[in-house]
């Protein structure tokens, strides 16, 4: 397995969710690519501060973790920046706090600028507790810069080859 380098760490203001999650979980989140399996994964240990009901990891945090691993799966597979277009989350069982969780994502499809990721959250006993299907929109540089201003990334990180925004 190889660690995925957080391309946002060097740029003030762009490390947002990655820094937020690390701060919220009181631990850095490191994402790893398993090239043989084609997946991206991370391990986190939420505590009681992350519960909705006592002792249960809040569903919103579960969805956020799945969305985050999906982003890094898209980045690792395409080397392109994308926005979440939609997310469907299926909560299969309660997730207890104070245990190491594994979140895993895999790109399952790409249709032009839309990339679909299957993401799963596993508890310590390796039960698949939460599943998400997430679609990312690989936006052209102009869309990103309209939102965030000039970005320090190569043009290759944006608009997919052959795709043009309809005007």
Characteristic key phrases:
single chain, 7 strands, alpha+beta, 167 residues, Thiol Ester Dehydrase, Chain A
Provide a descriptive summary of the structure in words.
The structure is a single chain. This protein has a 7-stranded antiparallel β-sheet with strand order 1-2-3-5-6-7-4, covered by helices on one side. It has helices spanning about 15-25, 60-80, 140-150, and strands at about 1-5, 30-35, 40-45, 80-90, 100-110, 115-120, 130-140. It is an alpha+beta fold. It has one domain (about 1-155): Hotdog Thioesterase (Thiol Ester Dehydrase, Chain A, Roll).
In short:
With 167 residues, this protein is of the alpha+beta class.
State the total count of DSSP E strands. Answer: 7
Order of helices and strands: EHEEHEEEEH
By CATH's scheme, which homologous superfamily applies?
Hotdog Thioesterase
- Biggest sheet: strand arrangement: 1-2-3-5-6-7-4
CATH class: Alpha Beta
Query: How far is the N terminus from the C terminus?
Result: 42 Å
């Amino acid at each position: 397995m190889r660690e995925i380098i957080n391309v946002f760490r060097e740029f003030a203001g762009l490390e947002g969710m990655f820094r937020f999650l690390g701060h919220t979980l009181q631990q850095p989140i490191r994402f790893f690519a398993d090239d043989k399996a084609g997946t991206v994964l991370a391990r986190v240990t939420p505590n009681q501060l992350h519960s909705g009901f006592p002792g249960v990891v809040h569903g919103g945090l579960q969805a956020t973790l799945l969305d985050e691993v999906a982003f890094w799966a898209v980045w690792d597979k395409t080397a392109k920046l994308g926005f979440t277009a939609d997310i469907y989350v299926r909560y299969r069982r309660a997730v207890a706090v104070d245990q190491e969780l594994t979140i895993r994502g895999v790109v399952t499809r790409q249709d032009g600028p839309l990339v679909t990721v299957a993401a799963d959250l596993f508890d310590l006993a390796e039960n698949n507790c939460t599943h998400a299907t997430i679609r990312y929109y690989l936006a052209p540089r102009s869309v990103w810069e309209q939102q965030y201003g000039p970005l320090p990334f190569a043009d290759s990180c944006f608009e997919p080859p052959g795709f043009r925004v309809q005007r």
